[in-house]
């Protein structure tokens, strides 16, 4: 099965991202949305620890902070709430903040092993087509990890500040690439992705060579003229270089912006997955991209 065309590969290498329209069929989109709705409606709120998902503003101590429910979710399907879905003051009886929205419109994301535990998402993820794309990008033994639905709920879907995915899924040498599927239209009006074109190369925007160690550098003042705000139709695939700087704004619109995403790293000998990454391999290792 064919992977990327030479033109697509050149665009990815130049910009650090690539949009492939109509990558999912309409039936695949509908199946993924139906599964998402089922998951959002059926999980047990009474036993949930009400873990909220937050991202920091660039402070190393604030990024991707989570409790055990989050940190042990790499091989499970779990639900993480939007902070703005809760009361600002704790309930005087329970000492905890309470949800002020129905649970199905309060969840920030579902993760992090949909590609192994959800048949509709597994059918989208572990495919020969994706393996062919990975081989086009130079992967020898592509492995899938950190699969999730990002909900971007209407009016409360939280912003994700500028970051590089390789900061959190670091391999030596770096290898992470994101597969990001729009399940609904992602537009400038409902918190679509924004990329600093070319920021994966050299030191544009403050290149980060590794997350853990003396070589790390802070992201510093990328040029606004290099920022491209995408307009992505449902069914499109966005490939995201692990070192490209990108972000999304808060969703202030009345429309949700569901997306499904996972990451691919190199599993071949010679690429070391850092044991200080938040997500560690399950027993048996990360999933092979093509089963």
TrEMBL record:
Belongs to the PhyH family. Its cofactor is Fe cation. The lineage of its organism: Eukaryota, Fungi, Dikarya, Ascomycota, Pezizomycotina. InterPro entries: Phytyl_CoA_dOase-like. It comes from Penicillium atrosanguineum. This is Phytanoyl-CoA dioxygenase domain-containing protein 1. Keywords: Dioxygenase, Iron, Metal-binding, Oxidoreductase. GO terms for molecular function: dioxygenase activity; metal ion binding. It comes from the Eukaryota. Coiled coil: none annotated. Pfam families: PhyH (PF05721). The keyword Repeat does not apply.
């Amino acid at each position: 099965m064919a992977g990327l065309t030479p033109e697509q590969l050149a665009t990815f290498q130049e910009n650090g991202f690539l949009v492939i329209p109509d990558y999912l069929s309409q039936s695949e989109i509908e199946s993924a949305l139906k599964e998402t709705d089922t998951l959002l409606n059926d999980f047990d709120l009474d036993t949930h620890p009400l873990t909220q998902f937050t991202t920091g503003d660039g402070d190393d101590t604030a990024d991707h902070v989570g409790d055990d429910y989050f940190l042990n979710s790499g091989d499970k399907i779990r639900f993480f709430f939007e902070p703005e879905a809760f009361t600002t003051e704790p309930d005087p009886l329970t000492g905890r903040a309470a949800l002020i929205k129905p649970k199905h419109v309060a969840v920030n994301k579902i993760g992090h092993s949909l590609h192994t535990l959800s048949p509709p998402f597994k059918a989208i993820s572990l495919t020969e087509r994706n393996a062919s794309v990975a081989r086009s990008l130079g992967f020898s033994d592509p492995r899938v990890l950190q699969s999730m639905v990002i909900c971007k709920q209407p009016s409360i879907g939280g912003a994700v500040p500028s970051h590089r995915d390789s900061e959190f899924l670091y391999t030596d040498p770096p290898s992470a690439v994101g597969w990001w599927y729009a399940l609904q239209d992602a537009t400038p009006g409902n918190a679509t992705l924004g990329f600093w074109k070319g920021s994966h190369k050299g030191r544009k925007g403050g290149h980060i060579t590794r997350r853990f160690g003396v070589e790390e550098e802070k992201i510093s003042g990328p040029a606004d003229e290099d920022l491209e705000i995408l307009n992505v139709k449902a069914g499109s695939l966005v490939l995201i270089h692990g070192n490209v700087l990108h972000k999304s704004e808060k969703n202030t619109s009345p429309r949700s912006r569901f997306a499904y995403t996972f990451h691919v790293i190199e599993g071949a000998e010679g690429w070391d997955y850092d044991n200080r990454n938040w997500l560690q391999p399950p027993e048996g290792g990360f999933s092979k991209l093509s089963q």
